[in-house]
Amino acid sequence: xxxxxxxxxxxxxxxxxxxxxxxxxxxxxxxxxxxxxxxxxxxxxxxxxxxxxxxxxxxxxxxxxxxxxxxxxxxxxxxxxxxxxxxxxxxxxxxxxxxxxxxxxxxxxxxxxxxxxxxxxxxxxxxxxxxxxxxxxxxxxxxxxxxxxxxxxxxxxxxxxxxxxxxxxxxxxxxxxxxxxxxxxxxxxxxxxxxxxxxxxxxxxxxxxxxxxxxxxxxxxxxxxxxxxxxxxxxxxxxxxxxxxxxxxxxxxxxxxxxxxxxxxxxxxxxxxxxxxxxxxxxx
Length: 284
Known about the structure:
Blueprint: E1 4-5, H1 9-28, E2 34-39, H2 44-59, E3 63-68, H3 75-87, E4 93-96, H4 106-110, H5 124-132, H6 140-151, E5 160-164, H7 171-180, E6 184-188, H8 195-199, E7 204-207, E8 225-228, E9 232-233, E10 239-240, H9 245-248, E11 254-255, H10 262-283
Parallel strand pairs: 1-11, 2-3, 2-4, 5-6, 5-7, 7-8, 8-11
Antiparallel strand pairs: 9-10
Helix pairs in contact: 1-10, 6-7, 6-10
């Protein structure tokens, strides 16, 4: 058995097409969707990601402002900037890019982003609303997991999904999104005993811990679907996931690639969320 590839390129393209059409409609009605990305780091990989967001935004008709506060920015300056952007009527989406300067807590800063402009679900209030079934933007990476599965017609209703990772960025919000699709979800983490026994009992495995090759063939059942959320840089400048793709592909029915899987859909959803926020502001 060789696993089929659950590419993220096709669902990302579909999302971008819908987003561009909606952005054009809003612009013709007098509202140009605008995204603000707040940066306080000199990290080059972060800078590359922000530039990629700005390029993708331009391609679908979204104005994107990169607000670079510098790697020495104080927490109060970051928070003040997020509050100002949240109250700016011309800005519809606000993202706080990580990493942040030493001593600055990302969740504390994210509290300054108004939940209706929190297009990457960073504010803990957004996660609470998501858990309660109230309107909120889910973290784009967590939503990308579900959107890829839906695009490739992977049935979730009644299926057992093992989520490996419990971060507020992916693991926890992914649980709520999967429950909304009527999946039965088990959350695994660093204290889980016999991880392979838990994950190999699942129909779908979502790996989101940031450890190269954590999930091997021993961790999946024959015919399972595996979503690799990991984006781990290698010494040669490449990118690999949390799944040992070579061994898992011989056992699983389907597997997302890294790169080219969750990543493109994540970026597309950030832009989709921004346009949705702009539409809500336009209607209010």
